[in-house]
Amino acid sequence: MEGCTPATLITRYALPDGIAMRLGLSATPERHFDPVGTASVLEYFGSIVFQYSLAQAIADGRLCRYRYHPVLVELTDEEVDEYKRIMIAFTRILSLSTTAVVASLRCALAQEF
């Protein structure tokens, strides 16, 4: 499944339809390297109505200055497949009731060990 980021998977499995009023709060509604996830989030919640930038939050004293040093890694095909499998399982668990979540976690842990 292409476009399988956490945001895309969570959007596909966990956001309920039929909700008339929606409020989404996100630091990253526009997701780098994830146009499918971005489109899904914006389609579900609608357009961005307010933005408070990182620079403004630092200027206002709400956040401290910091140095950002991302370390990008490339995954092997096998690692990508494993990542997708884990994220699909994770997002399915997110959409379950609490009782079902506990049962699913127990089952997943039993399978892993």
Radius of gyration: 18 Å
Largest sheet: none
Detail the poorly predicted runs: 1-5
Order of helices and strands: HHHHH
Shape: extended
Distance between the termini: 27 Å
Tell me the number of structural domains.
1
The number of E-state strands comes to 0
Which structural category do the helix and sheet elements fall into?
A: mainly alpha
Instruction: Round the mean pLDDT to the nearest integer and report it.
Output: 78
Helix share bin:
40-55%
Describe the structure.
The chain has one domain (6-112). The chain has five helices and no strands. By secondary structure, it is mainly alpha-helical. The longest helix has 18 residues, at 77-94.
In short:
This protein is mostly helical and 113 residues long.
Quick tags:
113 residues, mainly alpha, 5 helices, 52% helix, 0% strand, extended, disordered N terminus
